[in-house]
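Researcher: I'm preparing a figure for a lab meeting and need a structural model of a single chain. I don't have an experimental structure, so a prediction will have to do for now. The sequence is pasted below. Please return the structure as tokens so I can convert it later.
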Amino acid sequence: MIRFLVSRIVQGLVVIFAVITITFTLSKLVPGGAVRNERNVTEEARKAQEEYYGLNKPWIVQLGLQLKHYVTLDLPDSYHYKGRGVDEIIASGFPVSAAVGVAALLIALVIGVPLGALAALRPNTLEDRASTFAATLGICTPSMVLGPLIAMLFGLKLRWFNVAGWFDSSDWVLPALTLGIIYSAYIARLTRGSLRETLAQEFIRTARAKGSSETSVVFLHAMKLASLPVLNYLGPAAAGLLTGSFIVETIFQLPGLGQFFIAAATNGDHQLTIAISTFYAALIVGFNLLVDILQAVLNPRIRLQA
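Model: Understood. Here is the structure written out token by token.
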């Protein structure tokens, strides 16, 4: 198990450093930048800022400084938000994105798993067709369409929640519902397919032949194995939800991490772009590691093959 964990951690670190390198390279290929795009700034002041941020050094030296920042956890300042470190900016936006993301993930699981299990247990019935249709509709409906519809219904028509902003304790509901419905569609499809495949395996027939109840067969035997594809999907899904959906945060005007990422790209704030991309990659690596551990616990063959 220790070798399994060490292998996954090393792979994760390689991925994070690759993300830093690729994001840095791409940011250098984009013309302009927060320092060069500033107006009403003298050439001397511009050169002083470039020297302060190390932008006058060769690319390879700048990349080395970037990697040093993240290895030592001494993160740089933002180009656009003067005097604020990128870690401070991420810390200010992440709680909003995390609150919405955790709620959306719970909504997705509460809707998706039972819906997919119902369809798998009643194949080729009305329940199966209705569940499959609902999941397909959820997958095909983009957040830029579903979000305004939910805002119009619950915000403008029923007036139960604020349409946009982050002012009340219930302002997470509409964006979380938008994300939760979309992700629940994928979870329902995965649950249905995986559970149907598991129920057709030999050990399920053996458990039934031994007289186990259908409830015991489904929840104690089948769901344990059928949950592996869902767990595998939840790793990157949880990271995406916790860092905020850019489109949903824009629709509902949330001061989350997604809005800072859009602002960084718009303003040419390469330091903040690299930091948020690295933070997102670290979350994906962390959640995938957690998923790998859970899968290894549920299926020892994974641990032995690592």
